[in-house]
Amino acid sequence: MEALILIRYGEIALKGKNRGYFEKALFNNLKNALRDFEARVIRKHGRFFVHGPALEEEKMIERLSKVFGVVSVSSVQRVPLELEAIEKAALKITESKGGTGPSFKVEARRANKGFPLTSPEINRVIGAAILKKNPHLQVNLHHPSFKIFIEIGPREAFLYHEQTAGPGGLPVGVTGRALLLLSGGIDSPVAGWMALKRGLSLEAIHYHSYPYTSMRSREKVLDLCRQLAVSGIRLPLHLVSVTGIQKEIRDCCPPELGIILLRRMMLRLAEEISRRRRLQALVTGESLGQVASQTLESMAVISKATPILILRPLLGMDKHEIVTRAEQIDTYGISIRPYEDCCTLFIPRHPATKPKLNRVIEAETALDIENLVATALDTAETLLIP
Ligand code: ATP
Ligand code: MG
Question: Taking each helix axis from N to C terminus, what angle separates 369-378 and 243-252, rounded to the nearest 10 degrees?
Fold first, then answer.
């Protein structure tokens, strides 16, 4: 038996000239999301349909509902173009929604004008049949607890109900390529998810100080990447050791500027990776006011280390909103595992909250920046996730 799944997308349908390009990207992303299923994706009337093995329908729906650009996913029943068959299928759907009452609405659409009943007539007839069998239910046209959609096609009728919500947004890849600065914390994976949702394809970079930070920290970052890639995308992950840089900063620079200097080095490393990999922007999990390095003054001084565009998708979010999102996208459980943060190694945790750029630049004259960047990147490791 074959399952039929309907995938609806929203925003991209509105984007005029780009429509074809966006649909093509979504099509490819849907195919990638289903690459380990024996499924076919086809496009029809501004929507996508998936034909696949009935036994794996639930798993496929779960996977598809994570693909960016998807608004909703429904399992579809196909029946012959006969009122009786349509009614039977509608009753079956109602039964499966049994406990969820108390109200419903039938929404018919007649693409095939040869069908003898108009859409409002179909709504009335099928609605009446449902009421007759289920006297405890009511019709509610404005706020029904469930809807049954009926589409009258040229050769068959399609019925569906359950709307598993997708993330919405834009298909990954359509707006450009960026580099996510991924720590082991709660924020940066959420920032990555939000960047993906805006159609950016991502690579990730993680700074560590192995062996001072453990393999457990590394495993954690890998797991975060795997979780970000659940929608079928692939995510190259660059692992870069900053131990040498941290030691230089510790030995040669004022301690209260340590964190700022390290952050500026992180940006330079990210800039160089972006240049090599042709990535157009950086994405960080920074928000405003959370910690000393996230005051406006610090951010200004840190970001002046590089001309590359820095995106901060979490800027407008409260911590609790970030946590809620992290739970929803299943990164929270990974992020709260204990790990050693490379930033706290060797460098005191009481940074200047209002650093002066000229002092920072002066402190940096003690560092051989070019050489430090080159050395760190020479030993970098790149993994492709998953
Ligand atoms: P997170 O929860 O993402 O760790 P945070 O609230 O702890 O963020 P900071 O420690 O100030 O904030 O880090 C700000 C941002 O800098 C992070 O969101 C991340 O984008 C980047 N960053 C910090 N540490 C690392 C690291 N070790 N590797 C890669 N990026 C990092
Ligand atoms: Mg952190």
Answer: 160
